[in-house]
Amino acid sequence: MVPFAGYSMPVLYSDQGVGDSHKFVREKAGLFDVSHMVQHRLTGPGALAFLHSVTPSDLLKLSPGQSTLSVLLHPVTGGIVDDLIITLENPDNFYVVTNAACKEKDIEYIRTNIAKFDESSNGKVTHEVLGNHGLIALQGPLANVILQEYIDSTPARGKLDLKTLYFGFATYLDIPLGLGNVETLHIARGGYTGEDGFEIAISAKNAEAVTQAILDIGARGDRIKLTGLGARDSLRLEAGMCLYGHDIDDTTTPIEAGLKWLIGKQRIMSSNFNGAEIVARQYGDWKLVERRRVGFFVDGAPAREGAEVVDKGTDTVIGKITSGCPSPTLGRNIAMGYVKSGFHKAGTPVGVKVRGKVRDGVVAKMPFVEAKYYKN
Questions:
Q1: 342 forms bridges with which residues in the sheet?
Q2: What is the pLDDT at residue 179?
Q3: What is the pLDDT of residue 178?
Q4: pLDDT at residue 103 in the model
Q5: Measuring CA to CA, how many Å separate 54 from each of 58, 62, 80?
Q6: 248 CB burial (10 A radius; 0-12, 13-18, 19+)
Q7: What's a Pfam family in this record (predicted)?
Q8: Mean pLDDT in the chain?
Q9: Under DSSP, is residue 140 helix (H, G, I), strand (E, B) or coil?
Q10: How far apart are CA 311 and CA 263, in angstroms?
Q11: Angle subtended at Cα 283 by Cα 90 and Cα 75, rounded to the nearest 5 degrees
């Protein structure tokens, strides 16, 4: 257990190593307690316009129940204040999840920008932090089987066939727990591992009961294990996913971070969001992007955060590693980081300084391990 953002977080469970835990998620299913993530709700007739003012995503393209990855942007620099998941429930109601390490910063950012927001023209917007909620992530190829068995074992009000719930979508399900106690689960298909899976929001009073019930069902046939943040980190790195404060931060624009895909073309044309001037210029001209986020394979010892990346020919520093570990799935060292534009193409040989020695490396495409999302 380690302290993190005011919580005591499980990094590793005693019955398995990080590599074993990682492989179990790839082969069966892991259950992560991610209740440290911050859940929000933004409501009111101005909710859509407000989110459009602080993010570059085109939320008009979302269907009810659909989610997207997005970023909160600094109004001047276009730097990433935090990354977040936005789920449209209806145009006046959005469910948002942000990072625990950025909780105070994000809440202040949202409140400051709401204070600047022109409600007279765009409509009122209300922000609520859902502080009395837990969040668990069930991830792996057997996640859907286990969760479906749990749903079918309950007197749920309105049965849910998970075959109809695709990646990037969420729904609600009422589960009677006895004595008049009904738990409304928010079930989102997605996660932070590259595997098929679900993130399930639960009220604090019922979080332990629901989690234990899912674990009990998954225990039949040894299909599930509680999984710590050590394996979560190696899984997300294999999936090529960023960790805020390491791979992206306030100094990084979404274009530099390889997140151009989450920026709506119509939003660039209107340029009415925080940081739009910087982001729109980079969006339209790669020559203005001085560095790029890329993946690496590294020979020898694994490269960790902060390791310098150098040009093989001149030993000139051209970038740095932001995340790195041995890949349990691939059996080789992988890393993520930034290099100067021009060195970013897959297959480019580089040197990586590890323990005072320049190791051979090569720029690699991400994800390192193919995603297994359940898509329509």
A1: none
A2: 85
A3: 86
A4: 97
A5: 11, 17, 11
A6: buried
A7: GCV_T
A8: 97
A9: coil
A10: 31
A11: 65
In whole angstroms, give the CA distance from residue 195 to residue 43: 31
Contact 339, 248 (CB under 8 A): no
Angle CA 71–75–90, to nearest 5: 45
Contact yes or no for 273/267 (Cβ under 8 A): yes
Six token digits for residue 26: 């790839």
Q: Give the distance, in angstroms, between the CA of residue 94 and the centroid of all CA atoms in the same chain.
A: 17
Query: Which tens digit of pLDDT belongs to each residue from 256-270?
Result: 999 999 999 999 999
**185 by DSSP, 3-state: which?**
strand
Query: pLDDT tens, 6-64?
Result: 899 999 999 899 999 999 999 999 999 999 999 999 999 999 999 999 999 999 999 99
Counting beta carbons within 10 angstroms of the beta carbon of residue 164, is it exposed (0 to 12), middle (13 to 18) or buried (19 or more)? Answer: exposed
Q: What is the DSSP letter of 203?
A: E
How many Cβ atoms sit within 10 Å of the Cβ of residue 196? 23
Between strands 7-9 and 2-4, the pairing is antiparallel
To which residue do tokens 């044309």 refer? 269
pLDDT in tens, 175-221: 999 888 999 999 999 999 999 999 999 999 999 999 999 999 999 99
- Contact yes or no for 127/110 (Cβ under 8 A): yes
pLDDT tens across 320-376, in order? 999 999 999 999 999 999 999 999 999 999 999 999 999 999 999 999 999 999 999
C-alpha 231/C-alpha 214 separation (Å) is 20
C-alpha 193/C-alpha 34 separation (Å) is 13
Is beta strand 308-311 parallel, antiparallel or unpaired with respect to 349-354? antiparallel
Q: Which residue has the tokens 């989102």?
A: 188
* CA 125/CA 1 separation, integer angstroms: 38
For the chain, the first-to-last Cα distance in angstroms comes to 39
β-pairing, 170-176 vs 38-43, is: unpaired
Model confidence pLDDT, tens digit, residues 103-118: 999 999 999 999 999 9
Give dist(CA 333, CA 302) in Å, integer: 5
Global confidence as pTM: 0.97
